[in-house]
Design goal:
This protein is α/β, with parallel strands linked by helices. It has 11 helices and 10 strands. An 8-stranded mixed beta sheet has the order 4-5-6-7-8-3-10-9. A hairpin with a 2-residue loop joins strand 5 and strand 6. The longest helix is centred in the first third of the chain and has 26 residues.
């Protein structure tokens, strides 16, 4: 006799441990059912004539596999694009870059005519000199309006101008560079292909037109003079043009005026003015624009009052208030005036000194 829940004919053979348990471990979850290739029609559907009991389901779309394939394709395209851009990028010109030229340097000392004028008040000296209208510091190095060229954008031209200005400021106005204590502020802006020449110039100075430190920076002998006023006067201009389709050329022409007194002298000791005119030519290719560095091509420097007999290659050794020197050239050279050039040594024009 079967129990209340068993079929009338009793439990099937095998009972709990029989055939029913054989399939108990098989779980027909929803994903299994949906994946079946055959599907039974409903009772209503089977009432139609000639309707088969089952129908074949369309193959299941495997969206995940397609997404993986698309992702792999996207990664391959991105990787190929990166390789292409690394080869074709306009800044990656290492293989076709022209060799960087060596800097050509000319330093002209200007000897005073008579005694070097001096005064206790440096501001009074400036007011009585041609530097009276000059601006102070970097304000005296204005940037011209930048315009695109045939092969360089407006932003690239501006990058060239600002980088050149930065070099001029660091090499002409930074106190640690002026006093010879440091060269790194200027060195960090030099194109890597010129660093050997730059380092050789400071390690082994020579008046050979190639390895003259005072062609790279304004460097006053710290054993002779110190700044009497850190408000250095400056005036000049920058001009930019294309040297070729791959290079911008910036021409800089600036005059700097320093108030100096003897090293170690008291604050009330007479000061004098020292004038340095720097005409520099820079080249910047696309690599330089990217790294914010410059190639210094030519450096033409006039400085005075100096004694022509003294070596001005490693340091500029100014003549100070009350000192004299034998005149240089036959005519006066005025570093405040354009096209006022001389040969190996010149005479500092009277008009370039403070008026009495």
């Amino acid at each position: 006799m079967g129990g209340p829940g068993d079929p009338p004919e009793g439990a099937p053979e095998g009972g709990p441990g029989g055939a029913e348990d054989e399939y108990r471990s098989v779980v027909f979850d929803e994903s299994f059912v949906r994946a079946a290739r055959l599907q039974e029609f409903s009772a209503k559907e089977r009432m139609a004539d000639h309707t088969p009991a089952v129908r074949r389901r369309p193959p299941l779309r495997r969206g995940l596999s397609r997404q993986v394939l698309i992702l792999v394709l996207l990664i391959a395209v991105a990787f190929s694009t990166a390789i292409y851009m690394s080869v074709r990028h306009p800044y990656n010109s290492a293989q076709t870059r022209r060799p960087v030229e060596s800097l050509r340097i000319t330093v002209i000392p200007l000897a005073p005519q008579g005694k070097v004028p001096g005064a206790t008040d440096a501001q009074n000296l400036y007011a009585r000199s041609p530097a009276a209208p000059f601006d102070v510091g970097a304000e005296g190095i204005p940037l011209p309006p930048s315009r695109s060229t045939a092969h360089f954008s407006d932003s690239q031209v501006m990058a060239a101008l600002t980088t050149v200005k930065d070099y001029i400021v660091r090499s002409s106005l930074h106190p640690e560079v002026l006093t010879g204590r440091e060269v790194r502020p200027a060195r960090s802006l030099i194109d890597s292909d010129q660093l050997h020449q730059f380092d050789q110039s400071f390690d082994h100075p020579a008046a050979d037109g190639r390895h003259t430190p005072t062609g790279w920076v304004v460097r006053i002998d710290p054993a002779r003079a110190q700044l009497a006023d850190d408000r250095i006067r400056a005036s000049g201009s920058l001009r930019v043009a294309e040297a070729d389709s791959a290079t911008l050329e910036v021409a800089a022409d600036h005059t700097f005026v320093y108030a100096l007194r003897p090293t170690g002298a008291p604050a009330d000791a007479p000061a004098s003015l020292f004038t340095v005119r720097r005409e520099l030519t820079f080249h910047l290719d696309r690599d330089d624009l990217r790294t914010r560095q410059v190639q210094l091509l030519t450096s033409y420097v006039q400085a005075g009052p100096l004694a022509c007999a003294e070596d001005s290659s490693a340091y500029l050794r100014p003549l100070l208030a009350g000192q004299t020197a034998r005149s240089g050239g036959p005519a006066g050279t005025n570093p405040y005036e354009t096209d006022s050039a001389t040969a190996l040594c010149g005479t500092l024009a009277t008009g370039a000194q403070p008026k009495g």
